[in-house]
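Q&A log
Question type: sequence-to-structure
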Amino acid sequence: MKQIVIAVVGLAGCGIDSNVEPFAPDQVASGIYKLTVSAATDTCDPPRYTGAGRRVGVSASEGALVLQDFMTVNGASAYPTYTLVQAAGYASAFPGVGKEAPTCAQPSPSGDASIAYTLVGAAADRVDVIEDEAWTINVPCSQPYVFPAASMPSASCKATRALRYDLVATCAPPCSIVLSTDLPGQTQTCSCDPGA
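Response status: OK
Response body:
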């Protein structure tokens, strides 16, 4: 069985409910979580992923959370990973606060994008994150840069999504969350095999 070991946990943004209780990031358990994603706003085409039931990994350590998101690209599953650290207020931005990433290698400049994540709730069995995306598309992209071509919007847009992670099974150290790529739909599991 082919496996890829990954570190997983937090992702967040701004714009939905910033008063989710409780707020105890130090109590979050590493493990496999059920991800439920809803959109407050989404003017993007194609729309950003929403839905329920995807199993993703969340990894918690002192002062940091690493979470997986879920997206589909050309019908294939992808699990981008984001890190939220206490020192930054459990918020992060890609490519950085006040910066934007170019959307394409060719033509250049074709546009830019920014994605922000904010932790809004955390407990031993649940994590809540807000994700805000902003895309400026000046020219259609012929050669993607950072982002998969199939996930890039066709025009400028904004989206705000709420990501709710509900604990399904813990995966405490020294065990690791692994993504098994040879199984249908790519499945996250907890592996205590040091050779995984």
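Response note: DSSP finds no helices and 16 strands in the chain.
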